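Help: why these numbers?

___
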Amino acid sequence: MMTAPAKRFSTATSVLLDVLRLACAIMIASVHLTQPYFSIGWPNLTDYGKPALVMLFLLSGLVIRYVTVMRRGTAKDFWVDRISRIYSVVVPALGFTIVASYLAMRINPAYYLPHWGANTSHPLLRTAANLVFMAQSWNLTMAPFSNEPFWTLSYEVFYYAFYAAGLYLAGTRRIFWLVIIALMAGQHILLLLPLWLIGCLAHDIYQRARDPQISFRKLNLFFLTAGVAGAVLVPATFQFTIYLKGFVTRFFWAHHHAPINLHWAYVYYEEGIPVVFLLLWAMVLFDRLKVAEKAAWVKWVRLLSEATFPLYLLHFPLFVLLAAAFPAQCEHVWFRFGMLAIAITIAALLARPTVEFKNYLRDLLRKYPARPRLVPVPGLETADPA
């Protein structure tokens, strides 16, 4: 990690990250809409949304790194910010998911039960596991009813824990807690941890690339070369890993154990390596643009970007409810676009309330014991993709 002092994101770069966040959430909701659950006659484009999901993982690591470099604070400060940010949307999203799933099941059980009926077992345990983000640990896949995209939250919160342990602890305490967190997370969450850490590393590379003595031509050459090298090395590394996994399975792993599936994780790295260098290139490019911090359109972009998290967590159960209520309409293109428009509109309307709820939770958590409120860095809060 970097040792040189970092500079705040420029207004243009901060706006770029806000736009990317919201665009990724819209892309993910759009490709989910093409799934056979909701669309008749359209090809399933879900796999084309993976770059957007990878971008959100990278942005999360990048911004968390930026926040703690610019304003390290204490471990309590870190967790107060993370808890208030996560639960300000998770709590209402889970509440909406429960209501929407129940209504969809009652309105059209023939539609709901074959697809999400298995996700209705042990409802209290399922809800609790997702509230404490243990729903994806090891081989668990406890989706909260019809909200399938919720799985990424368990991954992300564990990555916060890994990062906090590495940053705020030292010596044997750091090693102890990193091992404990790893044992709680399990292999699937650990497989994508390096991808999130690449986002942290991207921040440090970006800060070094902002050196005015480095020409933009050299930066272009570096990003192009690194991106091509990554595109070549990632598949080669994956093939070696597959060979190594086969060796371990053959000689050290009992045959009745299911081998770890590496291919699903490999796809995220295959997408993530080119994406991270494209992101770095865009950030350095925008860093050189002059944008007025107090411009009205900048404030609107930052407010709308707060719709990212609500849109990501609410769109799928909303789609399920609408498709259950109006199954015959799913064959009409206008209805599908209407579903997407409704999801985006609801998320936009929730942008300001979720920010206010976040601030309320943050102030509530900071009262015990009372601490002076930290001065926010301009562009920091709205750039948080979590």
Remarks:
- The longest helix spans residues 216-252.
